[in-house]
Each structure stands twice: as structure tokens, then as C-alpha cells.
Amino acid sequence: MRRHPAHGLKWGWEDGVFLSAITELHRVTGDPAIADYLRAYLEHHRAQGFAIEVSDDCPPITAAVYLGGYDTMVGDLNRYIDSEALRTPDGLLNHNGVLTLIPPSAWLDSLFMVGWPLLRQAEWGGRSDALAFYGEQFRGFMAVLQHESGLLKHADEHWVNAQDDGVFWARGNAWVTAAGSDYLRLLRNRDQVDEVATAAFKKQILALLERQDDSGLWWNLLSHPGELYRETSASALIAFGLARAWRYGVLGDEVLEPLQRALRGIQNKIERRDDGVFVTGISGPTMAGTKATYAQVPLREDISFGVGAVILALIEGAGMTE
User: Fold this and answer.
1) CB-based contacts of 160: which residues, under 8 Å, 6+ apart?
2) CA–CA–CA angle 257, 263, 265 (5° rounding)
3) What is the pLDDT of residues 45-93, one digit of tens each?
4) At 282, phi and psi to the nearest 5?
5) What is the largest CA-CA distance in the chain?
């Protein structure tokens, strides 16, 4: 927060994931400086103007839902979801939102980018309709994107760029793990069950656990361990999903040992330096494509969404039994 003042953060998914994470940090700490930071960000963009035109524009609204008092901003999100974003032939939210130059397509990322502000409305605003809609979308995304292995491809068949069969991107899968665990948690808290979503989620978890590296992390391409690099943000989102699903009874004790290894691996990617604490080993923004597409994305550090993912993992993993 000291290195990146709120007014310097952009509107979009990268900084929006960080903001979503620190809503959780505020929830567990009550630190007023975090609430002030969130409010400063929202006030800056409310004054400057912002647009919600694609899924990646949605995550900052999580902060607006959390703080309250930003009904117009939240209404912009809901209007985008309800009437503006295009749908694929399968009825799924178009990752590219209102854009008409390319056919609508479903990407894994949307389950988190649109999902978190929707799920927060369900949790904090009592919107059962938001939870039901998300469940429909989650089941639909899993139906078209999940491979028999349990892993999910990045985008559906309607995406215009080529994708290689059998190539599975870690952070894309991790968005699903993180959002899916939260969806199933909210259902559990309402004494509800989504058997289709639960089965698909558990199938993915089993595939992820089978591919965890000895370091506790996951390789950027789950389908090609030992190639490219181990990636911090995906590993952190997976750890968050494991911890949240265990806490609420979605997953059993079999995930505790892999979770602890993941948390240790994530902590090893945090470096303390004279000028602060830095999260390392974060893959940059990534387009759905071929194996070569993923190989071209370099590792970076101190990227907001990677820091946010690590915050989520460390909060949810805090105090977990060995």
C-alpha cells in the first residue's frame, strides 16, 4: 500500500484482485488504514470515471460491495451482467463482455472476475438470485471447459485464437478453485448443496493434488510439469481454495498435508528487502492460446494480482491444522 498509493491503481482485474484480497484482510483485522485505502481507490475512480465492458473490469466492484455506500457502482456491474454482456451459444457470460468484433467465448477467468463481486453480493447483501445465477454459470463453464482429467482448458471452442489440446494453464484453473470453493461455502452456509458443481470441483482438486510439485507449488502449465516455471499466484489461489473448502466441509483432511506444503512454498516466494516485502515468481497477464503463448509470458514480481492471491492464501491458511 505504501509503494502503490490507491489513486495510482488502475481500474481492472489486476489491481481489482488485490483490492478483493484486502477486503478479506480488513475483515479479519479491522485495520482502518485498509478501509481508507479501499475508499480512496473507489472515490478516485468514481470521480475519474470507469467502464465495465468486459469480465476483467468487474473485480474492483468487490470493494464497493464490501464497503457499502456505492450502490451506483454496484448497479453498473449488475446491469453489465444482466443485460449488457453477450452470451456464448451455451448461455455463458462472454469473457469479452460487450465487444462485438469477435464471437462470444467463455474463459475460466470470468468465474472469478465476475464471480467474486456476485458472491459478495450474495453473502453481504442477501442476494439469493446472485448465488443462483452464479451456480448456473459455474455448472455451465465446467460442462464446456472441464477435461476428463479434471483440469480445465482456458477458453471454449468459440475463442478465435488457437489452443493446444491437453494444455492446461495453472492460474486459469486456480481462478476456478478459488471461486468454486467460495460458491460451495456460501451454499453450505445456507444448508444448500449443488451436487453437479461439487463433483466437478472435487474432480479438479484431485487432478491438482496429483500435479503438485515437491516445492509445494504448481507449474505454470499443469499439463507439462518440469517445463516453463513454478508459478506463485496460481499456487496461492489453489491454496486459498483448498483451505476455504476444508474449513467449510467441502473437502476432507486429505488436503491438509498438500495445503501445508503449498503454504510453505508460497512463503518461500516472499522476500523481505530494505525497501519492503515483495512477492516473486508471478506470471504476467496471459491470453488464452497455445503452449507457445504461455511460454512467452515472463515471471515478474510485486504484481498486484499476485500479491492479492498470496494475501488470500495466507489469511485462509492461517492457523490450519497440520
Assistant:
1) 102, 103, 105
2) 105
3) 999 999 999 999 999 999 999 999 999 999 999 999 999 999 999 999 9
4) -100, 125
5) 53
Tell me the β-bridge partners of 230: 219
Q: Identify the DSSP state of 95.
A: T
C-alpha dihedral over 84, 88, 94, 100, to 10 degrees? -70
CB 19 within 8 A of CB 41: yes
Cell numbers for 288, please give them.
488464452
CA angle 118, 133, 174 (to 5 degrees): 60
Q: For 133-188, what is each residue's pLDDT tens digit?
A: 999 999 999 999 999 999 999 999 999 999 999 999 999 999 999 999 999 999 99
Alpha helices in the chain (DSSP H): 13-29, 32-48, 61-67, 71-79, 110-113, 115-125, 128-145, 170-189, 195-210, 232-247, 256-267, 291-295, 304-317
